[in-house]
Amino acid sequence: MGGVLSSTRRPSMIGRARQDCRILILRHGDPKDLIFPEYWKANDVLYQRIESERKMQMTNDPGSIMITIAVYSPCENSRCKCKAGKFTEDTLNTVGWADSKCTRSGCNHPLSNHIRHIKYVSNTEYMAVIKLVYDINNIKAALEISYANPKLQRNILIGSVYESVYKVLCKTVRYDPFKAPNIDTIYGSPPFEQINIRQILINFSRLYFFGDKEVLTFKQALKVTKFLLRSFDLWMWTVPDKKSYFYSELFSKPYSYYFCRYMVYCEIPRSNHSISPRYKATMIFGREVLRYTLESFYKDLQVWCYDSNIICKRHRDLYCVNYVPIYMTFLKTAYENPYSPIWNQPGLLFGQCN
Q1: Closest C-alpha among 87, 327, 335, 96 to residue 220
Q2: pTM of full prediction above 0.85
Q3: CA dist., res. 283 & res. 276, Å (int)
Q4: Are the beta carbons of 209 and 202 closer than 8 angstroms?
Q5: DSSP string, 61-79
Q6: Which bin fits 352, alpha (ψ -120 to 50), beta or left (φ > 0)?
Q7: Which of 61, 119, 231, 327 is the most exposed place for a label (fewest CB within 10 A)?
Q8: CA gyration radius for the chain?
Q9: Domain boundaries in the chain?
């Protein structure tokens, strides 16, 4: 009797596992899955702080705001070639701001000539320009601080990323300030690897835990996968050192190549709000990034699990102490094998789930 009961229950359990797998596979191709949902902004401390500072700046008198915009906007006089306003403190007038004269050579036109393009815009368009100019000022300030440091203390790679973004934002505010900056012109558009980290971990769960292994059931493995994916998307990558520019024959590109793209699409949108959307690292990066970052990510995750006050004790014990170490032990074995089936596209592992 016991054998009959177990045999009738087993298929339904596998059926549920296959259904979970099918849902994960089908959602893999949805473009919306590449980016964070809008509510990430409400839960991100850095985003909220930047937004609060920008709103405080907008409470200033209109003259200060318009002068800031004019500094990055070309003169609209038909014969003038001035590409950005320049105003000295002597001629700067935040009360009669429209009459302030641009001191750039060959211009000498009033400030109002530099902001004519936003005179009759909608509130949405006006807010877009404010965001753009605010982001430009932030990046410019960060670059100036970086340049003030000795070369040995600078990170040339991060500086080059911000310089590239700065140029795109300046070009946008000069030629089309009501359009979102096209940051794809810097490093190309995501995704940057053929199979992403999300699918790799799903493949891994199916390969090692499908059929409810004794060490970890398939359902538990999927929960750990979801936990790790969410954690990886929120994790700040390790800053590359000089060694990151070199790579072995096991990789097609250096770590620095992927780090630059991570900065532009996953990290900078937190502090520069004119750049949107923010992408999930697990959806636009794949095999090589996982192999580059897995060990450092897991070390940081362990520290976070034990030290963070956000996770309740039961949740921490269940995942970080029990499930995650088992999962990661098997994952390390799999990812060290360049021919492991976990690197395959969906459908090439066991065939599509039915």
Answers
A1: 327
A2: no
A3: 16
A4: no
A5: -HHHHHHHHHHTS----TT
A6: beta
A7: 119
A8: 26
A9: 59-120, 122-175, 197-343
